[in-house]
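INFO worker-7 received task bundle
INFO bundle size: 2
INFO processing item 0
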Amino acid sequence: MSEINGKDGGKECRVGVYVCHCGTNISKMVDVVRIAAEMNNHTNVAIARDYRFMCSDPGQELIQKDIREYKLDRVVVAACSPLMHEPTFRGAVEKAGMNRYFFEMANIREQVSWVTTDYEAATNKARRLINGSIARVKLHDALEMRRVSITKRTMIIGGGIAGIEAALQLADAGFEVILVEKEDSIGGHMAKFDKTFPTLDCAACILTPKMVSVNQHPNIRLLSYAEIENVDGYVGNFKIKVRKKARFVDTKICNSCGSCYEACPSMAVPLDRKLILGDKVFKEGRRLKTRRPRSLGPDHDLWVLTGAQPKPEQERHPEQEGV
């Protein structure tokens, strides 16, 4: 064990370094025994050890024992991914009286032994990662976990199939959801598809019921034809400014009859409407003038575009109407 002679910002640090074998996952490609011995000569390192399974109860107890015996104020564990065991080791050092954020973890399994075929190269890389972790842990500050109140409301930006599904899942779990969509209708790209890959199921058959559920769900507030202008705050307490574009229609009483579409003066030109995908024009139709001003919906427009045949009761007979 080396003499503690290093200082960081005038503060002396006593670091404990622990190199895990992880069975043979690490030790088969990294010389963990040699690295542990070398770390004992590192500036600021009070104790360095190698152990077969650092995440086991005996491994955690070894760290806690050394913290008390060697008066460690920083701990570095070289083992697997922090995603797996960082909370484990943070809890272990906290039980020994050290701040949980004075711990640093070096990943020498996923980032070294599992992706390197040369024994010496892997050992050298692991050594450099551990040296970096030691340098970093000396800069850690003591942090405290705090509880803050959060707004139990979720905003989802984008009303495509992913946004719709997320909104429904959260709403069904009891959370208030605000769904913001920049277009005048939700559905996104899936609304333009005929079938879905790989089962070739009807896209509309999957999407339409979900769109209806979004509109009718008591926990979902839909803001279509709107865009985010500004986001302030922090996680759990965001303040978001949303601009709703002018529709010139009272959405509270609108029943989507389409009469406003026929009467809207802004639709006088162009007279032609086309269904285009890329450079190819699939269907082209000319909007017919309205012969019956009191009729509901665009007159013949969709039939011309899609080639659909009107139902017998919807067929018009001008000679019977006196026009």
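INFO item 0 finished
INFO processing item 1
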Amino acid sequence: MVERSRKTLSRSPATPLAGVAVGSGRSAVSDRLTRDEPVAAPAPCNARPSVKVGAAPPARQTAASSFPAATAPTLRAGHATEAVGPASSAAPAGVRIAKLMAERGLCSRRDADEYIARGWVFVDGRRVSELGTRADPAAVIVLDYPAQRNQQSRMTILLHKPVGYVSGQPEPGFTPAVTLIQPNTQHRTPGAPVFHPSCLKGLAPAGRLDIDSTGLLVLTQDGRVARQLVGENSTIDKEYLVRVEGHLDARGLALLNHGLSLDDRKLKPARVEWLNEDQLRFVLREGRKRQIRRMCDLVGLRVIGLKRVRIGAVRLGDLPLGQWRFLRPDEAF
């Protein structure tokens, strides 16, 4: 038995075995072989080892077994040895804080990024200042005082837009409605702020109103208001008075309420009714381009006048044509 062990050790004399101290005289292997220990009898030639189907063969002990657990290689059945690292492809946990802030109406996504970068956001009591940070969807998010003051200073303006002005980006030969926001066109009410040029900074229309239409147009610096009025999940309705020419039967009126499609997409249900012999009242919860005019075309009507008189709970009221006023603190859409 001792002779057999010597032959095994002589196969690779240049490579020291694990657990053998090189140059230390008698090795631990030879000490074990010379002790009076029972030696297991060799297994019969036809005996099969007890190995589970699909299991990897036992790994030969190497110096790698002394590595820390975090860096030790792992053997897989039928595969080469691989180092198991962190799962880089795993989806990050939580939701971006900026997205949560916008969804909760704290501010717009753009403002949220700015406030986070400035360190003006607390999540579960911890200040956050790194963009892209994620949090649990149920986390408590609070704006610091500078961010709160910044939000409160954002202005929202109500304009009675005349015909001939475009609500959004200027078109060739036409004037954008925002040019009407001037000191001399302000409709002053008791306690209203005085116009300042800073009111124009970042002012943008929240929704469209066709160039041939008149009525209530909202312009705002507040991303929360814009999201509320024109966001994908907005539920704010808008009311219009529409003067028409042509004949409309009961079936056509039913189709105006529900059943029409524009650009191969079905329209959301609307509320449409006669106010008098040539005027209809429309209440919509969406704002496709020239939607009311195109709806009327589909049922044989021609629009000769269109005026928006309400957005949510805010009415045009007695605001003169071509003038504007600030949204009051006691008003909400």
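INFO item 1 finished
INFO post-check item 1: Residues 1-57, 59-88 have pLDDT under 50 and may be disordered.
INFO post-check item 1: Residues 95-152 form a domain with the Structural Genomics Hypothetical 15.5 Kd Protein In mrcA-pckA Intergenic Region; Chain A fold (CATH 3.10.290.10).
INFO worker-7 idle
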